[in-house]
Every structure is written in C-alpha cells, then in structure tokens.
Specification:
With 72 residues, the protein is mostly helical. The chain has one domain. Helix 1 crosses helix 2. The mean pLDDT is 82.
C-alpha cells in the first residue's frame, strides 16, 4: 500500500496546531475528517456581505443631491 501524500509542515501551521488544535483542524483540515467540504479539506467559510456601508452611502448621496438641487 502506498503512503498518502504528506503535506509539508510549515512554522505557521505548527504554531497554529500548538496554540489551538481546533483552529488548525478548521483552517487546514485533517485526514479523513469531513468538515463539510469533503474529507481532509478545511471548514468552508461563509462570508455574509454587510449592506451597512451602502445604506450610509445612499443616504449621503441623497442629501447631497437635495442640497445641490435646492442650491443651498
């Protein structure tokens, strides 16, 4: 039986493993453990986009438009 492909051990990965093994597991994956993206793959990240900045920009644009149209 052929050995599995070994990943090189970088200092950042080793440090992450030493500090928090759970973070290492979620960030880099491990063996046959399935975290949702397939066996051995890291936990998928779900990024929610916030619309707070767009709301602020829309309000500022509206105010400037009103000031310009009314020539204040």
């Amino acid at each position: 039986m052929l050995p599995k492909k070994q990943r090189p051990m970088y200092w950042s990965r080793f440090s992450t493993y030493e500090n928090c093994s759970q973070e290492y597991l979620w960030k880099y994956g491990w063996g046959d453990i399935d975290l949702g993206a397939g066996p051995g793959k890291p936990k998928p990240s779900f990024i929610q986009e916030s619309e707070h900045n767009t709301i602020t920009g829309r309000v500022m644009s509206y105010i400037l438009e009103q000031l310009y149209n009314q020539e204040l």
